[in-house]
Amino acid sequence: MADLVSGDHSLDPLGDAEALKKAGIKKNYAKVGSGRPSTLLFTYGPGAIMDLPRFTVMPSGLDAWDRIWKRRDGVPYIHAPKLLAAVRRQLGQQVTELRPFPHQPAESSFSDEGRDLGLPALVFPQWLRCTGCDRLAPLSTFAYSNTNPYKPDEAKFEHVGCPGRSRTAKGGGKKRSPCVPARYLLACENGHLDEFPYLGWVHRGGTCSDASTPMLKMTENTLSRGASARIVCASCGASRGMNEAQGAAGKAKLPACRGRHPHLDAFAVGGCDAPAHLMLVGASNLWFPITQSAIVMPMDDGEKKQNLADRLKSVVGDDLPDYVGELKFLRKYLKDRLDVTEISDADLAQALTEALSPLPADPEVVPNTEWSALDLMVPEWNHLQLGTAGAHHEDEASGLVVTTRQLDPGLPKEFSRVLAVEKLRQATALLGFTRIDEWDRIDDVPTRQVPLTVNQPVWALATLNRGEGVFLQLDEKPVAAWEATVEASDLWAAHKQAHRNNYANRLSGTAANIDPDTRMPPPRYWLLHTLAHVLFRQMALSSGYGAASISERLYGWRGTEHRPPAAGLLLLTTSSDSDGTLGGLVQLSEPVRLRQLVTSALRGAQRCSSDPLCSHRTPGPKEDFLHGAACHACAMASETSCERSNRFLDRRLLIRLPGPHRHLGFFDVS
């Protein structure tokens, strides 16, 4: 973790609201918005900028969340041992548990259950513009009001005494004009984010000659493109357009990055040597989450022991040494906190010893670039290979229920195995985030992973969804033979060159030190990916779920000395509530229905309303798009379904389409 120098970390919105209430100020409520766990994990997590109706906020780092958890006697956790082990590989062995978002459902929209829980956040950016007179100033200049506890969307900042545009900025006024965030920011490739220095910008690095606290205005030219605003100093008359900060020439005029992490109230020690980029508040590349996801699988003996030790650390905490040799009192303490009735005294004593063991020496925890996300999927693949023919297998701890299906004689012979995953739990953990470029597109320099805490974290944020799915496995022998044919083709050479071009064309330059070929998925991944897309598009017609509700988990890699080869896919649907899903996908795994589903999907993939343009699409020598015969009319899917943002798709690798690459199709549905 990078060295940080931090502020006082006193962010406690709920505590501040309670203090105001005790002081007699009863109409300044802390709650300003809400969000779904999935949205807060993938779009608006710590360090991101969340749009509210009247202003924008940034969820804080996890340090401030502990004040929220202290409002409850116990802290819930998410059971996902393999995911926790993967998180430790990235964040350090001191991480003992995965926690969900602080939330408690309310019985009605007007009840108070869970009102003392929530995500601490700060207003960011903290420079606002008055919509009535264009005044540009820090938020302390304006009045904040949040008077309705049941309508947090009405929280707002106002310019009291706004003179409007018809009077001089120095004149008085009686208006209360709403204020909006000033939309310019500075960001760098190392993940730092800062306010735009409007005072220094308009005075070209100097100070105002007429006032110690100059009055700024931001005017907009709606006829221009890009950064169309102009910053004006009403005190001395200085003026400068924001368009000067655009492009390569504009970047040279920007100040150096200060190494700021506003979500942590911290700065990088020694500053930052990366160039600053001009960013807008709503830019899509302002925040990319770094997540790991896993299907919760049954624990082996080693994981059971480690899990018990981790739970003792979390539940008992600093008092753990007091129970050495006092197992009777430990069991009494754990009675309503942790079920150890089935644990023998010997195993409990061993877990206690393990929990008290010192952590391995690790002077600096950095992301482990030797570790691959595939390592998290291998245990899933291995478990799904276990023989379950004719049996119904259920694991209470993981919630996994799997049944083997017979293969219909009419199913393409390339399929070797079908499982009905009647119940599953999918856990996803947030490890950090990047800016400018997402994690799998950069060169894995550790400094580009922005931490979620100032100190080494002892827990990680995660979500848990319940659902169902269908697992399909392809026969490895024909897959390997087909893969060799594809790799020798000119089509595959074109895709590899496009992939290299894509990395070379990154405007941020974060992929300059990467060998793109090491990030190129093998042909089997393209095959499985395209197959998954055409299948869940077909599933949406008969499962009761929309295509956007069905997602994919692809097991497509060659064998190495550390892992066996894999060629399979899990199509699943999950939800965050306790009921999970309704069984629509599991029913489609029945032999006859699955044969009909696969046949219809493969035949449907033969036709696209954009053919022949789509079916012949091949990247040229200088082009950099990462798909072939695929478009939104035939194979592409929504962002909620696809794990690779509709990259690495090509129907010519799935089925035999007319044209020069007909022989590369894996399935023959003629």
Question: What labels would you give this structure?
Answer:
21% strand, eight-stranded mixed sheet, 23% helix, 25 strands, 3 domains, globular, single chain, eight-stranded antiparallel sheet, 16 helices, 670 residues, alpha+beta
Rg from alpha-carbon coordinates: 28 Å
Uncertain runs with pLDDT below 50, 5 residues or more? 363-369
Please indicate the count of domains. Answer: 3
Structural class: alpha+beta
Domain MrfA-like Zn-binding: 531-634
Protein name: MrfA-like Zn-binding domain-containing protein
Pfam family, one: MZB
Organism: Propioniciclava flava
Which secondary structure elements does this structure contain, and how are they paired or packed?
Layout: E1 4-6, H1 13-22, H2 37-42, E2 50-51, E3 56-59, H3 65-69, H4 81-91, E4 97-99, E5 121-123, E6 127-130, E7 135-138, E8 143-145, E9 156-162, E10 175-181, E11 184-187, E12 193-195, H5 198-202, E13 216-220, E14 229-233, E15 239-241, H6 247-251, E16 260-261, E17 266-268, E18 277-280, E19 288-295, H7 301-316, H8 327-334, H9 345-356, H10 374-384, E20 392-395, E21 400-405, E22 415-434, E23 459-474, H11 476-487, H12 490-504, H13 523-539, E24 551-557, E25 566-575, H14 584-588, H15 591-604, H16 651-654
Give a description of the structure.
The protein has 670 residues and is an alpha+beta fold. It folds into three domains: 4-73 and 116-287, no CATH class; 298-356, no CATH class; 374-434 and 461-664, no CATH class. Helices cover 23% and strands 21% of the residues. The protein is built from 16 helices and 25 strands. Strands 4, 19, 20, 21, 22, 23, 24 and 25 form an eight-stranded mixed β-sheet that branches. Strand 14 and strand 15 form a beta hairpin. It is globular and about 85 Å long.
